Amino acid sequence: MIQVNQLSKKYNGTTVLNINNLEIPKGQSFGLVGNNGAGKTTFFSLLLDLIQPSTGNITSNDIQVNTSENWKSFTGSFLDESFLIGYLTPEEYFYFIGDLRHQNKADIDALLAKHEEFFNGEILNNKKYLRDLSKGNQKKVGIIATLIGNPEVVILDEPFANLDPTTVSRLKKIIKELAENPNVTVLVSSHDLQHTVEVCDRIVALNKGEIVKDIQTSEETLQELELFFAV
Amino acid sequence: MIKNFIYLEWKAFIRSASFGKNLAMKIILGFLMIYFSLIFIGMGVGAFYILKEMHLEPFVTVNRFLIYYFLLDLVIRLLLQSIPVLNIKPLLVLPFKKPVIVHFSLGKTVLSFFNWVHALFFVPFSVVLAIEGYDITAIIFWNLAMLSFIYINNFLNIILSNIDKLFVVFLGLILVLGGAQYYKLFDVTIFTTPFFQGLYNIKGLFLIPVLVLAGLYIFSFKFLKKNLYLDAGLSVKEDVAQTENLSWLNQFGTLGTFLKNDIKLIKRNKRSKTTIFMSILFLFYGFLFFSGGIETYDKPVMHLLAGIFVSGGFLFVFGQFVPSWDSAYYQLMMTQNIPYRGYIMAKWWLIVIATIISTILASFYIYFGWQIYLTIVVAAIYNIGVNSHLVLLGGAFTKTPIDLSNAGGAFGDKKAFNVSAMLLTLPKILLPLGLYGTGIYFDNKNLGLALVAGAGVLGFIFKEKVFSLIEKRYKIEKYSTINAYKQKS
What we know:
The structure holds 2 protein chains of 2 kinds.
Chain A: E1 2-11, E2 14-24, E3 29-33, H1 40-47, E4 55-60, E5 63-64, E6 75-78, H2 90-100, H3 105-114, H4 116-119, H5 135-146, E7 153-157, H6 165-180, E8 185-190, H7 193-199, E9 202-207, E10 210-216, H8 221-229
Chain B: H1 2-14, H2 23-53, H3 58-80, H4 89-92, H5 98-110, H6 113-131, H7 136-160, H8 166-182, H9 189-201, H10 207-226, H11 254-268, H12 270-290, H13 300-317, H14 330-335, H15 340-361, H16 370-395, H17 419-441, H18 445-461, H19 463-476, H20 478-486
GO molecular function, one term (chain A): ATP binding
Protein name (chain A): ABC transporter ATP-binding protein
InterPro entries (chain A): AAA+_ATPase, ABC_transporter-like_ATP-bd, ABC_transporter-like_CS, ABC_Transporter_VariousFunc, P-loop_NTPase
């Protein structure tokens, strides 16, 4: 589904990301772990054509993301709060994204009803604009919005940060459900090794922009990763 | 301790986004500042002689209208002058005593633009008074009183800022008083003029405003100190949200989706609401030109200039900052399945609709004759056909994020100046003036109007071509725009 070729990103001569070759097959749930500055967000930004690569390219479903925009119709993403429109209510935001993804109101309502538990009664019909919601609740809105229109690629940057324990376990359930669908490729980045191991089939660890580990998840994966990051 | 504060303020000042820009912008900014200062000073100096020429006693006349002056000042402050609340937060947990923090925050508002701008009028006016033989000590006392009134407004704004929509009350008060005076029902100035005049005539009367000011300062101090908690005075007010469907816009497809969003954008954010306010001001700007009050403005070419501003107020104050209005969530827009053209087109329609509404509202200028209104309509055609495209094109170069919650900066966001955008403003104004001038050269006003309208129609005909061009520009600038919007000011 996603193919990375000779990709690198440099800022003023400093290489922040350098991936020679990486292939993420369709239907995989892919976890990206690493310390601050490892290049996780840079990779996702490149994948979403928000920044330009210094060399190389990424193709998604055989579409090179920085030359064609056709990947947008099957990709859902949430990197940070700047993906939210602060002056809208959550409902308006969902309908807005729904309009852009050619979903009608009933589709959206069905999706929202499905995730009512995840919202925990704090999102819908609350007479609050998105800008006035807490960080955690904003995140809930952003995550569910990525699912609108049944995208084939779902990209979530640090989805577990800022969420309360109950919501984290509900989110894991949602991601696992997505991962079970053979048509959906899920990409998740996190600082939290345990959560990532739990929801992903495959884990790639980045360090200073380089891939330092690439493992299929198994019983020993968490230990292996913890050992690797313990200094 | 004060030293630390001043250090912080100095850093805040020199590191603000507006300061670090290039030299050319600073020079342009400098010129603008000087230009506006000169206008104010000119008003201060000129007021005396103009009033005298109108066979009015200048000083009494100024005193007569001071009540309106200060009321209007209060309205403008309530609308635009924001209180630096957020800067206080990080100081709370540091070893500063609360009174120091409060004194400092209040002291900071004293230096605000909204205060010293008045000096540009009062100082030259007083100098002229002194030259014309008024008693100098009395003038100084009078000025002290004026100064007190300005700062009374300053502190009133701080105390009242938490009350929503209060400016409407004061604006209403001005309109009612003004209307009553105009129709000779009730003249408030009969009561206020002797007081303001007394500040000059009666020794010691100036102490009243000074004492009121002192009292108000103490009150604001206590008020702020008592409310120096995150859940009290420092809380950011949350609006009660209302979900709006605006479903009648659905029939326009993607265009409707964006229009819906833009309408909410304008309605729900302080910064964008001020554009509506500014557009209304622009609507009345024409009076200066058409009423014949100012001789140099009362020329056909100047009339067209006025027409462009009257019909295009929204175009200039809103269009100029496309796409910065969406800066806060620009990354979202760039990852969604949106054609650029649809996005730009929606903004274009918004501008066009606003221009048409302004033009219809401006029909009260028919009072000055049909020729005047025809000029406005022609200017509107030019605005729709040419200027609307130009502002959108200029937007591709505007890379300053807009903080929607902040009302400040509505007077031409100084941060958003850049050379390429500046260059694009020239054809917006000079080209139609040139075309119109050509018509006048042949001694035919209507030929001039036809030329300007023709340019507008041509622009409209080539709309699709122009949009392709704009779209291309936006795509080229995409990455640097995303990057720029990430730098929060």
